[in-house]
Amino acid sequence: MKAHTKETQDAMTPNSALKTLVEGNQRFQNNLKADRNLLQQVTQTANGQFPFATILSCIDSRVSSELIFDQGLGDVFSIRIAGNFVNEDILGSMEFACKLAGTKLLVILGHTACGAVKGACDHARLGNLTALINKIEPAVEAVKEPKDDALRNSKNIDFVNEVAEKNVIMTIDNIRSSSEVLAEMENKGEIKIVGGMYDIKTGGVKFF
After folding, report:
1. Residue 24, CA atoms < 13 Å, CB-side half-sphere
2. What is the DSSP letter of 74?
């Protein structure tokens, strides 16, 4: 499998880009890999890159987008930050990736048992981590059940995972409201913005 070119990138649609990631994740779950030569792709991408997707995911060491979607060099822009939320710098990176570099799909990928989300559920406070946790806490408040405070913490993994999913949805809403560039591209059908959850136990990604 060769690295993407301008021609192959142009030929992809938002839907075909999503289908490519779905198929890649299925290969990953089945312990299969597309036939690609990464060193050859180094040479093929030396003079330019033409990724088809931009993926915002957590820094969690188990959630590498290139691996879980079985992609090679030059295939995806990978943005990683604990808790997979957006700020001005990340929005700018997304605008570059989609508007200037031509990606067709923007994925916000959360995952189960997320440490950053657990910290938000527990309202953790530690140095600069405090400011990061503050950005995820609105998702905690947005999940209304359970009401019992004793169950609204990191010990309740179902609550943690529901908050993680809510955080993805709220991040997508934030992207649409904070980036006129990306919102316009989505409205024109030039890109698709989707959310997903990666299951650290199965290796599967659920898109929604």
Report:
1. 21
2. T
pLDDT of residue 176: 98
Q: How far apart are CA 115 and CA 161, in angstroms?
A: 11
Strand-by-strand arrangement of the 76-80 sheet = 76-80, 53-57, 105-111, 192-198, 205-207
State how far the Cα of 114 lies from the Cα of 29, in Å rounded to an integer: 20
Buried b (16+ CB within 10 A) or exposed e, 150-182: eebebebeebbbbbbbbbbebbbebbeeebeeb
Q: Which mean pLDDT values do the consecutive 10-residue runs of the chain (208 residues) have? A: 93 98 98 94 94 98 97 97 98 98 98 98 97 98 97 98 98 98 98 98 98
The DSSP annotation for 81-95 comes to -TT----HHHHHHHH
Quote the CA–CA distance of 14 and 92 in Å, as a whole number: 20
Give the integer Cα–Cα distance in Å for 133 and 137: 6
What CA–CA distance (Å, rounded) separates 36 from 123?
A: 44
Q: Which of 78, 52, 75, 42 is nearest to 63 (CA)?
A: 78
pLDDT, residue 1, reads: 85
